[in-house]
Amino acid sequence: MDGRKRVLLAAPRGYCAGVDRAVVAVEKALQRFGAPVYVRKQIVHNIHVVTELEAQGAIFVDEVDEVPEGAHVVFSAHGVSPAVVNAAADRGLHAIDATCPLVTKVHREAVRFARDDYEILLIGHDGHEEVEGTAGEAPEHVTIVNSPDEADTVEVRDPSKVVWLSQTTLSVDETMETVNRLRARFPELHDPPSDDICYATQNRQVAIKKVAKEADLVIVVGSANSSNSVRLVEVALEYGARAAFRVDYADEIRQEWLDGVATVGVTSGASVPEVLVREVLDALAEAGYGDVDEVRTAEEDLMFSLPKELRQDVSGQRDDRALGGRLR
Ligand code: SF4
Questions:
Q1: What residue ranges line ligand 1, CB within 6 angstroms?
Q2: pLDDT, tens digit, 9 for 90 and up, residues 195-239
Q3: Residues 27, 119, 129, 130: which is the catalytic one?
Q4: Distance in angstroms (rounded) separating the CA atoms of residues 223 and 241
């Protein structure tokens, strides 16, 4: 330790376009239709965002059968299977689909490859909402591959008609390892038409790789059920950080993590409002790490328009975007 305490702040970090859109969709639905508005599953995987939206009148449920008939329900950014869409329609619910368009893209790929009778090896975490939604588009055609090791044992019907797709928030490196191991067994394995791991996941991993090389400690702000946040901890450790921890809030930082630490890397997952990062920086400043340098590896300016159910404002005007920023 050279004695100079500093923070390297990764950029891009925090909110992606899909999370921003989903959070604004719930806020907009509350404004438009009044509380309560129901949300199936956590709108995005961040405890702070969920708590703030609950305070505004959102009610989070696990399944649509918990929503009163005729009420408004928002589907989360992670997407839903057709079975959920149908169950909501059967209950007469007014559904607002906040599925990230980059998740919808993977759904469409699954539908298309299933129609062409491919067996789809879906690389992702069994039980994650996004994987359940994507697999639900073509359950007869999808086999989930959880890890590189599973690539060595998964069985397929016809090795000449196999394609891989993936969850959007995985580790890029680990996914490539899984694909390589699948291809070693199934040389005719098809690739998806474009990257399934989204731009935000990739950009945040590239930034933390650069920071991790110089960091004694990396702190990732994000919730335990946030796939891309958990991946950032793993990637930081792989790329040279001596230690890496995930926190929801600044008060979870332990004094002993900072023992002997000169450089602290800080980043946040795609579902994390910047206010939580600021609180971590304030806590670090109090501990003597007030010197903050940003390490930026990409610029991001992508925005998605609101779900179509919310694009007209009350006066009938088109309202592609609005609001935003409340929870930042
Ligand atoms: S992490 Fe990627 S796929 Fe998920 S909501 Fe954000 S942009 Fe969409």
A1: 16-19, 77, 100, 102-103, 168-169, 198, 200-201, 228, 270
A2: 999 999 999 999 999 999 999 999 999 999 999 999 999 999 999
A3: 130
A4: 20
